[in-house]
Amino acid sequence: MSRFTGPSRPREQLSEAVCAASELLEVLWGRGQDAAPSGTVSPSQLRALLVIEKHEGTNLRALGDAIGSRPPSVSRLCDRMEAMGLVERCPSPTSRREVELRLSPRGRALLEEHRAIRMDEVAAVLAVMEPASLKALSEGLAAFQEAAAAELRGSDGRPLLEHDPHPIADSA
Predict the structure, then answer these.
(1) For the chain, which has fewer Cβ within 10 Å, the N-terminal or C-terminal residue?
(2) Phi and psi at residue 102, to the nearest 5°
């Protein structure tokens, strides 16, 4: 019997299985990231870019909420991403004290590159799975993504990363 199944504490065991799968995904994705022509970005930079992409024009506070980081750290993170040419800071049209964060064309290209690399790595694994397992995985991932989106809400009550009806094709 797998360590991830059984009568005792099934949710805890399932949590372990999800974490183990997540760690394997990190290894798969990291393996391809170094080959990306645009160079590498840190995991926190990648998370920030994804949030900015989903909420174009977000401010530093909302970005900090989304990635679970404090304002000084978010500001430094954005400084580095701006220096790399990945994001642009624009004055807010509603408040002179705020800036809006937008992806630069280079930032968009980098995300697309990372998606392509990740899709190739995942596709190689999916290619060796049985059809029934693929179906179960697809249904489980859709339910997980929906629950995670509901759990991750910003201070305004909106999901920070909305559920996408095409989770495989548009995930990062």
Answers:
(1) N
(2) -135, 145
